[in-house]
């Protein structure tokens, strides 16, 4: 099939909200390592990694080999039978969990949405409370509860609302809801969670769910004290803290395996997907053992912990460890950050550079003083980088944040290439 046929059939047979990037969508046909090729044979340097999912590079040979071997051996049995791959993966994840004397237990599903849905249900069952706190600008997923915890209007169709979810102010310092400046704000956004609980809930809270860095929201990076102020408030009202590590997990933020490790708090429950398995549809919820042990209702996840996807996840984790990719995210991410900061000195349409490790964003504005968002500028930059052979992502409530997150195997040389293209593209899109 040629690219135009694929585009036409996509329009004809898929729901219209399965939307694609670019004015004329890009049709990938193959990929390897840091590179993606389209149907016209054009090669792209991938700095978005299938939405932060291809953590160890496209078609990573070790991952492909081990997964293919498992596919030939035992493809599917459902959660009704224990297999070696599911217990190996659960044990591996528990060994990577934050310190907790009673240990951790796992529930595998097939997506980040299901992981969050399971995390929230786990908290509701464990606490007996119904109300939950999510963040404005957050992204939760497509399932009912996850969809309603989103703080982003375009993902919330009319009529989908379910009760019991309250949205706290996001730690979005660049656009502080209170008009304050960090650090003199003294974490007003976090402290306001107490007022939210006192005024909008029954006073009993099941959980607070938050992304350590808000991904779809535009890599909004909370100040280092944020969770240390927010989480004790939740605990005071009986709630549990769920870290949504779907984007920030597996070394993406550089210093640590988990994004929340950057903030000095321990979650009670964690949600994972995306980078966990280099593209296999794996979701996982990890809960402290005493919380998991309260989940005694019946539950089947037909595809959860499928032997093929578990082997793909285990192979991905072993590449992350053996090739020291957490360290690489830190070093190469720091190099990327320096380069983006240098671009911000040259191009005034960059309002803010933010992020951690290999999860970096540029927020584009029409004017640095008014901070008016520039979604058209973001669209122009997407087109300009595509033309030059670089894939990046876009996000933010206003569609004006460029999201830059390559596979964690990226080298400084890859970053040099990406920065060169970004610089040329910023120059072109500024004057367009
Ligand atoms: N949580 C976060 C932080 C996400 O970024 C996403 C996906 N963008 C999800 C949950 C939902 O994941 P999925 O698309 O796999 O359902």
Explain the overall architecture.
The protein has 432 residues and is of the alpha/beta class. 37% of the residues lie in helices and 16% in strands. The protein is built from 13 helices and 15 strands. The longest helix has 22 residues, at 325-346. The two termini are 34 Å apart. The mean pLDDT is 97. It binds 4'-deoxy-4'-aminopyridoxal-5'-phosphate (PMP).
* Helix percentage: 25-40%
Provide the list of bound ligands, each named once: 4'-deoxy-4'-aminopyridoxal-5'-phosphate
Residues in β-strands, percent: 15-25%
State the end-to-end distance.
34 Å
| Gyration radius over CA | 21 Å
Number of helices: 13
Shape: globular
Main beta sheet strand tally, sense and closure? 7 strands, mixed
SSE topology:
Layout: H1 3-13, E1 28-32, E2 35-38, E3 43-46, H2 49-52, H3 61-73, H4 84-96, E4 104-109, H5 112-127, E5 131-135, H6 144-148, E6 165-168, H7 188-200, E7 205-210, H8 226-236, E8 240-244, E9 269-272, E10 283-288, H9 289-292, H10 307-322, H11 325-346, E11 350-356, E12 359-364, H12 375-387, E13 390-391, E14 393-395, E15 401-404, H13 412-431
The structure holds 4'-deoxy-4'-aminopyridoxal-5'-phosphate (PMP).
Short précis:
The chain has 432 residues and is α/β, with parallel strands linked by helices.
Features:
16% strand; single chain; 432 residues; binds 4'-deoxy-4'-aminopyridoxal-5'-phosphate; seven-stranded mixed sheet; four-stranded mixed sheet; alpha/beta
